[in-house]
Automatic annotation (TrEMBL), chain B:
GO terms for cellular component: Rad51C-XRCC3 complex; replication fork. It comes from Zingiber officinale. InterPro entries: DNA_recomb/repair_RecA-like, Rad51_C, RecA_ATP-bd, XRCC3-like_C. It comes from the Eukaryota. The keyword Methyltransferase does not apply. GO terms for molecular function: ATP binding; ATP-dependent DNA damage sensor activity; four-way junction DNA binding. GO terms for biological process: double-strand break repair via synthesis-dependent strand annealing; resolution of mitotic recombination intermediates; t-circle formation; telomere maintenance via recombination. The lineage of its organism: Eukaryota, Viridiplantae, Streptophyta, Embryophyta, Tracheophyta. This is RecA family profile 1 domain-containing protein. It is found in: Nucleus. Its main location: nucleus. Pfam families: Rad51 (PF08423). Signal peptide: none annotated. The keyword Nucleus applies. Keywords: ATP-binding, DNA damage, DNA repair, Nucleotide-binding, Nucleus.
Amino acid sequence: MSASIAMAESSRSGAHALLDGAQTAWDMLSEEQMQKPITTGCEELDTILGGGIQCKAVTEIGGIPGIGKTQLGIQLAVNVQIPVQYGGLGGKAVYIDTEGSFMVERAHQIIEGCIADLFEKFEHRKQSLVCPYILQPNSFLANIFYFRVCSYTEQIAAVNYLEKFLEEHKDIIVVDSITFHFRRDFDDLAMRTRVLGGMSSKLMRFTKKHNLAVVLLNQVTTKFVDGSFQLTLALGDSWSHACTNRIILYWNGNERHAYIDKSPSLRSASAPFQVTSKGIRNVTSNCKRVRMM
Amino acid sequence: MSLDRVDKNWLFRGQFMARPHIEPLNPLLHLSSQKLTLGCPLLDHRLRGGLPVGSVTEIAGESASGKTQICLQILLSALLPPSRGGLSAASLFIHSEFPFPLRRLRALSSSSSLSDPLDHIFVAAAHSPHDLLSLLAAAESLVARPPTRLPIRLIVIDSIAALFRSDFDNTPSDLKKRSFLFFKIAAKLKEQARRFGLVVVVTNQVVDVVGSEDGPGRLRVGNYAYLCSSGRQVCPALGISWANCVNTRLFLSRKDMIVENNASSRTTRRMQVVFAPHLPEASCEFVIVRDGVFGVDL
């Protein structure tokens, strides 16, 4: 009995030696199940996302100006830091700001909102005595590593630099927005496509190698198709294949909605959300108390 | 700057690496990012302090809605010390609408408490988008090495729409060319805003919203399903492309109301926050009087 097990194990390790770095699908599934998604702050949106933004994946979030892309980006950079004791990942965030939309005062507001809701949700737990020391706005701000890039060359340099920077543990990279600096004219459009492709495959590699989530915020443009103008995500042609998941934010009457436009594992669905002073929340009540039995 | 001039292989192989500056998000230093007062505490309050440094704010509205008035007012408030909401700084005013309102600026500056404010306001005219780009390139040296003792920390462009009025047709290829220029201009403005700690204000005109429910003109952008001025439904000019280029969009509207029994009309004016990364939906009624633009509390 033991001899046959030993043989099975040695042939398994032999197979592994042949394909260095390869995994079995089973290993991948168990790893995926261990990886907690990052909550968006809105329960309904989390539900259609299968719990939240998936780690080990590149998620593109697009929408028109003012719909809440930056708000969601900041919310994710905050929520990734929710301590494990409070059901989060206890992680750190990288925020690459290409447009100057990130405002520290707004991040501070969102952090305060997150902490307030955590305290409300978990106030019955006595063991939260340790956590109040971690739940300070300053420590949340300190765990958002903020890069401001002002040109496409700076953006490429930043992404290349991340290779080294990510050796220390990070759990999410938010790029706000990914295409802004590439929407001006370029003498060589084919080169632009290749540069974007190189950047996207690098980001994809980061998700695999460093076990993190990459969130790319994108702008919307009108494309002249079949004689009429249609709304599409910017640089869609050179970019769209690069993302695992794609979410579109849009107005549905007076309500903000998020729609899953592309995903290998999630059903197409949409969910309403709102942007409050505390950040991204459910449309219904944002003062829900969690009932514990 | 074209990609051709950078070593293509270098970029492509990922060896183009300069350690980018990582910003420590020190709340003590940056928490209330520096703001420029509009010159009225009520308007400032709606904007959580005023116009933010390091970002591009658009003020859109129809003619005579008050855009230029506010621009002139902030040219002066920039000279105030930070303790009074200013930047202790000179300004650059690039105008594409003619003539430059010198008389109004002189009237406002004489009623202010500042000494020789006009010495610290630089004015330049632009007739086309390429003019603007050349001005911004030249402005860089002006901003970096100011001729006066005060640095330039405010750039106003009045208006962006007038620059694009004549050179472009409504064909898809012209619109694409136009859109390329938006991103080039916006990237330049944002880079300068960031590098030199500038407040950048750009005014924009509005166009009438026509067409069916589903047409592109009816696309909702921001906090309001529709924007109205002088009884017409309007939206800021230059489309979604330009909307993607600004950080904050403010909308000024006016409504003329006939006063009963009097056969005269009263103009009510409103400023609304259409979108902003740091502001909730907000609006404020304001008036334009001899001494400037001021919010009114209802």
